[in-house]
Amino acid sequence: MAHELLRKRHIIGSESVELDGRLLEYDTDKYAELGANILYDSSEAELFTEANPAKVETAVISLEQVEGAEATAGNNELAAAPGAGNRIVVTAFVIQNESDTPLVMVLRSGSTANGWRCLGQNQGDGLTKTLPPGHEWRLNENEALNLQLSDAVTANYSVSYFIEEA
Predict the structure, then answer these.
(1) Domain match, 125 and 84 both
(2) What does the pLDDT read at residue 134?
(3) Among the three residues 61, 83, 104, which one is the final residue of a domain in this structure?
(4) Is 45 helix (H, G, I), strand (E, B) or coil?
(5) What is the domain extent for residue 19?
(6) What are 61-82's pLDDT values in tens digits?
(7) Domain count across the chain
C-alpha cells in the first residue's frame, strides 16, 4: 500500500488550502501556517472514506511583526534570540534608508555574515522581500535578528517572522 502526499493546490481568496503537503490559512489581518502532512492510499476521490482513512497532523504557527527605525552604526537587535533549540524564521521584510547619506544595511542572523544586504544610495532606497512558504529565511539556532548599519544614519524596517524548533 503506497502512501503519498496530497498534490499541490493553488491559493484562492482567504480559504484554507493544501500546498506541498502543508495546510495554509490566510486572512486579512494575519497569516497563519498550519504544517500538515496528509497521507493517503489510492486516489484523492477516495480520501477520508471508511475504506481509506487519512491521518492529519497539524501545528499552528503565528506570525510576529517588528517595525521601527534604527540610527546606530553596527548591529541593532530587531528580535531577541528565541532560546536554545529554537530559531527565528523570517517570512517577509522591508529595510529602507531614510536619509540623504548612502547607507549599507544588512539583516543578519546574530552577528554572522549570512543575511540580506542592501546599499541605500539615496533617501528611500531599500530592499523588500517576501519569502514563500517552504523558502523562508531560517536564522541560526538561538540567534537574534539584527540590522547592521554602516553609519549612524536612520533606516526603517518591518519584519514578519515566526519561531520554530531548530
Answers:
(1) yes
(2) 85
(3) 61
(4) helix
(5) 4-61
(6) 789 999 999 999 999 999 999 9
(7) 2
